[in-house]
Amino acid sequence: MTSIPTFLLLDPPSGADFCRRGSLREKNAAHNAPFPNIDLILLSGAVREAGFAPVYIDAQLNRMNWSELSARLQAEPPAGILSLVSSSSIDNELKSLQRLKKELGGIKVYIVGTIILQREPARLERILRENPWLDGVILNPAENHFAELLRGEASAMAEPLNIAVQGAEGPRISAVKVRYGDGLRLPRPEHSIFKDARYCMPQSKHGPVTCVQFSFGCPFTCEFCIDNQLYRKMLYRDVDDMVEELVEADRLGFREAYFKDLTFGLQKPIATEFLRKLAARKLRLRWLCTTRIDVASREMLTMMKQAGC
User: Mapping DSSP to helix (H, G, I), strand (E, B) and coil, where does residue 121 land?
Assistant: First the structure.
């Protein structure tokens, strides 16, 4: 019986002077709240849909350096890696990923591009030209059909952002943005691989904690936030599929879910349908979200509480 090849979702090691999110060094710090990355969670279902068994390593949480990571993976190399990178340390992280790719026999390596790369095309182009070994950049998890990319079926659907890198074998498109033709459809995430009692949010009362996302984008232009620039328009997941994802998280034993939506409840009809259907399932799972005072209403806040907020 042939085993299903694994594909690694990686929150990579970071330098002593940098932490990607939360605080992993000050044990009793008030902001000590490491939580799983939503991009990797959202893309985990695409890995499964492409025919791989998704596995996850949070090297930061486990205080693992690049040498330790390499030694662990060489015992049983994955078919590929999808790694986070950080805007402030991307060049060093790419060098480490290149070395890791070589040590693992040249497996496929993709990165989740930061919002800075999407806002600064020149920087993205420089990174691609300086790293021809890189197999692809996922610029956002909702509009990229990562499953099709892994299956090698993305060429007809690819929007190359006018960036092509000239390699030894000719032009190579390195940044691929693939849009679903029939609206937003995300394969249901594999929350089970992200279950870790050490994850929490600053507001957490119960664990284990996971992250979910129902809507993508935001029409507001708050001066303290650039995340609304990641999507060109508001996108919403299917209501029933979102409810079933939370039902699955509840079944897996998660006790809290944090909605990474920038502004929860913007579209009242969609939010109302979702909250009504979620409340009817009577889950033990509780959840957190962020919204705005001028978006919320007494009626919606009441429905949110009834649905487990």
Answer: helix
